[in-house]
């Protein structure tokens, strides 16, 4: 090794951000291991590399012992021999001898090359991990680089992400070299290097797309309070405004629906309901069940978050949704377990005494909170309570859809 080697390390330090000192320390340790092959497993060997000239010296440390006590000349040196080097040496001192092992130049060159390559690889892996761990839960642009069965490998520039079949949206099909937006779900540092796990079905993808499209969300004026998604089918998103002069739903919808349409296009036509968030549980439940009109909301148990929503008879199927999707998403986005009942079902239960203390619903209000002190009808134990349609028809009704102001949503068919 020589000065050119040191200069090369300095260039690597500037280009790859690999510390020259780290590489030199590693080379020294690797050379010690390599040179021990010349001297067995003796532990008294060390290597020193001059940081300026690149000169490599192999040193062996030996203890000074009395002439008659000399046993192993690889570890010890007699007092007579030591004093020939310097008369000041005494028994117990340590002398470091410079040695030149056989094949010195070849071993040093090969070892240095291996260490440098390894350190560069480790540094690059470290930089990739550091870059993407800070971008966790963000949306990035990528290109499908290859396929392995149903798993897609997405090129993200300095790294390759993994989009497993479970994190893909049913119906979406991306080909190699096709561009797409993905959500960084997790980043792990493994023996094979950093692995970036991606998703197209995570609710965070929808949230991130709106953050990119809506300036009011970026500056904090509008806040996404909750989001629930069934990827490929429908998303419900509740929003609120920190400025009374800014309509949060209108900001997300955009002029003539331009903002929400951009998000819908990226999600291959997935329907999106944008809802007003409310800190009042009853109002929130009424909002999240849109597009169905809610006559009243009964808070059954505030601690366990159980509630019953009463809807007109002809809107029961709409409130439940196809295969229970509407009420299921409403429960997720609100955080409440919701039981849906038609007006006639509610009146029957009330006649039976289930709602003795319930006050009459005020039709001028959008919703009502009815405190239930009586016994309630037995309900299913599932987290999301879905009422049965008396006619056995769960298909959404074709009645006139509520206005944007009333429903607080943007739905793309």
UniProtKB/TrEMBL annotation:
Subcellular location: Cytoplasm
Pfam families noted in UniProt: KH_NusA_1st, KH_NusA_2nd, NusA_N
InterPro entries: KH_dom, KH_dom-like_a/b, KH_NusA_2nd, KH_sf_prok-type, NA-bd_OB-fold, NusA_N_sf, S1_domain, TF_NusA
GO biological process: DNA-templated transcription termination; transcription antitermination
Signal peptide (residue range): none
Coiled coil regions in record: 2-29
Domain S1 motif span(s) in chain numbering: 137-201
Region annotation (Disordered) ranges: 370-413
SUPFAM superfamilies: Nucleic acid-binding proteins, Prokaryotic type KH domain (KH-domain type II), Transcription factor NusA, N-terminal domain
UniProt key word Ion transport: no
GO molecular function, one term: RNA binding
PANTHER family: TRANSCRIPTION TERMINATION FACTOR NUSA, TRANSCRIPTION TERMINATION_ANTITERMINATION PROTEIN NUSA
Protein purpose: Participates in both transcription termination and antitermination.
Record's subunit section: Monomer. Binds directly to the core enzyme of the DNA-dependent RNA polymerase and to nascent RNA.
Record NCBIfam families: NusA
Name the record gives this protein: Transcription termination/antitermination protein NusA
């Amino acid at each position: 090794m020589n000065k050119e080697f040191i200069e090369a390390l300095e260039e690597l330090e500037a280009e790859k951000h690999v510390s020259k000192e780290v590489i030199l320390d590693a080379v020294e340790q690797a050379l010690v291991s390599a040179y021990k092959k010349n001297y067995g497993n003796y532990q008294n060997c060390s290597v020193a590399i001059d940081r300026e000239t690149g000169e490599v010296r192999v040193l062996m440390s030996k203890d000074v012992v009395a002439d008659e006590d000399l046993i192993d000349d690889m570890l010890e040196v007699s007092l007579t021999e030591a004093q020939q080097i310097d008369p000041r040496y005494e028994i117990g001192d340590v002398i470091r001898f410079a040695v030149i092992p056989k094949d010195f130049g070849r071993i040093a060159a090969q070892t240095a090359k291996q260490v440098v390559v390894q350190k560069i690889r480790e540094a690059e892996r470290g930089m990739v991990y550091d870059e993407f761990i800070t971008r966790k839960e963000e949306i990035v642009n990528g290109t499908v680089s290859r396929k392995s069965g149903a798993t897609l490998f997405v090129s993200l520039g300095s790294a390759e992400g993994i989009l497993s079949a479970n994190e893909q949206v049913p119906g979406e099909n991306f080909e190699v070299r096709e561009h797409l937006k993905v959500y960084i779900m997790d980043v792990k540092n493994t023996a094979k290097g950093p692995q970036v796990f991606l998703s197209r079905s995570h609710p965070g993808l929808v949230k991130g797309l709106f953050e990119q499209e809506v300036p009011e969300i970026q500056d904090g004026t509008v806040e996404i309070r909750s989001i629930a998604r069934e990827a490929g089918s429908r998303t419900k998103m509740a929003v609120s405004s920190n400025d009374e002069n800014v309509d949060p739903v209108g900001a997300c919808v955009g002029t003539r629906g331009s903002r929400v349409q951009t998000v819908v296009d990226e999600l291959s036509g997935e329907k999106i309901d944008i809802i007003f968030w409310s800190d009042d549980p009853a109002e929130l439940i009424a909002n999240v069940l849109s597009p169905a009109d809610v006559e009243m909301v009964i808070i059954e148990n505030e601690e366990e978050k159980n509630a019953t929503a009463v809807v007109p008879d002809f809107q029961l199927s709409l409130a439940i949704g196809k295969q229970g999707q509407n009420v299921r998403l409403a429960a997720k986005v609100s955080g409440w377990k919701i039981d849906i009942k038609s007006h006639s079902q509610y009146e029957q239960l009330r006649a039976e005494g289930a709602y003795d203390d319930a006050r009459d619903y005020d039709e001028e209000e959008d919703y009502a909170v009815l405190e239930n002190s009586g016994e309630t009808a037995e309900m299913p134990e599932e987290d999301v309570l879905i009422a049965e349609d008396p006619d056995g028809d769960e298909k959404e009704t074709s009645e006139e859809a509520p206005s944007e102001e009333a429903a607080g949503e943007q739905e793309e068919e």
